[in-house]
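Hello again,

I reread your note about wanting to compare the complex against the isolated chains. To keep things tidy I'm splitting this into two emails, and this first one only covers the full assembly. Below are the input lines as submitted, including protein chains and any nucleic acid or small-molecule components. They are followed by the predicted structure of everything together. The single-chain runs will come separately.
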Amino acid sequence: MIQFQLNGKQVSANVRPGTTLLDFLRDKGYFSVKYGSDKGETGADTILVDGNMMNASLMLIHTVSGKNIETVESFAHGQDVHPLQDSFIEEGAIQCGYCTPGMVLAIESLAREKDNPNESDVKDVLAGVYCRCTGYVKPVKAAMNYLATGEPK
Amino acid sequence: MKIVGKKTRRVDGLSLAKGKAVFADDMPKKDYLYAKILHSPIAHGKIVSIDKSKALALDGIEIILTHEDFTPHYFTTAGQGYPEPSPRDTSMFNKTMRFVGDRVAVVAGESLEVVEEALALINVEYEELPTIFDMGDSIDNDTVIHPGKDGFSFLHDASRNIAANISEELGDVQKGFNDSDYVFEGTYFTPYAQQCSIEPHITLTWLDENDRLIIRTATQVPYHVRRVVAEILDIPVRKIRVIKPRIGGGFGGKQEILNEEVCSAVTLNTGKPCRLEYTREEEFYAARSRHPQKVTYKIGLNKDLMMQSIDMEILQNCGGYGPHALTVMSVSASKTLALYRAPNVRIQANAVYTNLPPAGAYRGYGAPQGYFALESLMDEIAEQLNVDPIELRKKNYFREGEDVPIAKVLGEGREGFPVILQSNGIDACIDRGRELIDWDTLKNEKKSGIFRRGVGMATVAQASGIAGIDMGSVFIKMNEDGSFNLNMGATDLGTGSDTALAQIAAEVLDVPVEKMIVISSDTDTTPFDTGAYASSTTYVTGAAVKKAAEDVLSQILEQGKKLLEVDEATIENNQVVSTDGQSISYQDICTKSFYTDHQTQIQAVASKVSYDSPPPYNATFADVIVDTETGFVKVNKIVSITDSGQIINPQMSEGQAEGAIPQSLGMTLTEHMIFDDKGRPINTDFENYHIYTSIDMPEIIAEFVHTDEPTGPYGAKAVAEIPINGPAPAVANAIYNACGVRIRECPITPEKVLNGINQLPIK
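Full-complex prediction:
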């Protein structure tokens, strides 16, 4: 039996050894965490573990015992939409949207970790989340607007 | 206009940002059978025997299907209109394997683990056949890749390994060369490159309560999927419902019937739901890619720089099968030959079979290959004649009012339709791009030192849908709160077409976009659409939306007049207003129409097929730095200026260009699929096949110039594909400007550049 925090709630999981966190989360209906590749390059499976960006497909479930996992399902915190997500919509930073939850988590981890991050910091964290639609131009802009003000422009 | 051309938030933005369950695989867990494909490990050979007994004996394995279970039915995996212009050269499971990755069997079972175990236990005996990997060796090779004739419908000559051929001449090309003052020729190569949508191909199938087959799939072509699956599995169309949810990128890769029929076969044979998802590795060798092409252009000009003859020759590798083989080459020719005017034009093209993976549709659809050749050669001509490359181009463009004769000759596998250009913003694109890249300074500054900076440019065209073939249809109905359902077959593959089409409807109906409820791409509930390809949706389906909305609007007006009991009225701010000052709101009109007065449902359907396909135009400028010690090319900046007529949604249109540019830069500099001497793929992950990430990106400026296309909805032309055509030749031209090295083969790797530098007489 493995216990950990998932989006602020304590969960106990009784799962087969070898189950990845990606499979566990999707089985439980956390569909924002997605398959993109087997080696984590795409970052479609990005989650936050104790606030750090990690690849859910590369983590076996037993390794998260006692840790705090976050996905974007928890993100709006009772509001209609989190300001970072709103910034993505406002800037047109979403095309197919498959990578968007991963990008949102990547930027949020940066926001928590660093004071006044700059554009190069944003590009660094987004290098862990592949996007084939946007060329990263508008996602970077959305991130900068959010980081500068905490609000979309 | 209130909504068209204005910033509009995406109708699906909120659900996507929140990571809601909108993609194909985001379904509450059913008792799926998990299916996986057994792929051929050999590039060419016949299956002698398949022993599946050990695999079937495993606990949890439900079914294994191979060629032995089906009577061959030949089809093409290309998701195209009917009859398809691609050769019908494959069946669900073939007895002959034609590339490493070809389909041997499908295994379905209770878990992925047991299915993977079973795959390893299937014992297949092959009789290996000689292979062809170099497309130059294919025609008239002793090895014939598709020797059988029974059941196949071929467009060209299988006995010579030719999947498709184009041979057309307008005027007399040889006479044109004889009469020219100068004749130039160049040969250029573009490689296998992969679409790399981040969501892989995924299909879920199940039987509903009426035993109808439901196919929930990541596709660009839901109606073609329904038609082809019905045909292959020999079940009536009425027994199938195809649902396209949100999809995680397509870029042409999902304009293919790829696994939908296999997943369906498992469900029909077992009665159980089935899920088939490709891994990233399978995406690289068992999905589709860009056709490698060797393109030779020969151009004759007079002293006044006016072109007299253009001769284009294409050799295209279509791999083991020929989906899109003819039409991709046809686009390579028709889109490039629609840019410059010459009285004599010839095209000779062959798509040939090899024992490498079949290529398919990929954004640009042949135009990127053709333009890499044409726009590289244009710069080479300018260089040799010592004239300004922009002036050379400007002298030769087709202009507004001119007839583009090639369009009539090269349709989609049949004769096309004549094009008279009615909008052409190429000059404005060039002027704006030239300014933003600082062309005049950077082009002419002296190049010296280890790091050399250069600029290059290219001008390109595409089309807006396939004339006379693409058809979109929509259904709009009114609700009593003044909202409208907009149901359409059109397929939003992440481009935002649901939003752009809602904008067009909202503009006509004079309501905010929030009043449009969009449902798209469900073969049960939305009317027919050929699908999302050929940059057709805004132009073709957009026109259908406009037509249906105008019909609804006139019904609202008529109903309003009846309810107000007046003869004359107009529509203002969601109300029908009579000349004598009475008014009635949309809500009241619809509510009364439902329940009390002149009862009716205000609704309309409309279809649109366009016999025009106006070209959008684009000028792309590149600013690069070449490290002359390592050959490494760094792209500083790309400026991409496009004439797409009236832009419907500026932000989304910019996004199309911003995303197309790194896809092209990948093919130009870093991306190509590599195979070993047995035809086995080598680089099947993102460590070894490098697509652009955020830290690789140059500065990008993507803008649009305004033109008004009289045949398009609100003056619109296409956006989606054209920005992918320019970066490759612009970068190649910039490298030449920087260091004097001309590379005619993509990807332009550091070793090719360095080799070129080492061969320069003066470095």
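For quick reference: The longest helix of chain B spans residues 537-564.

B.
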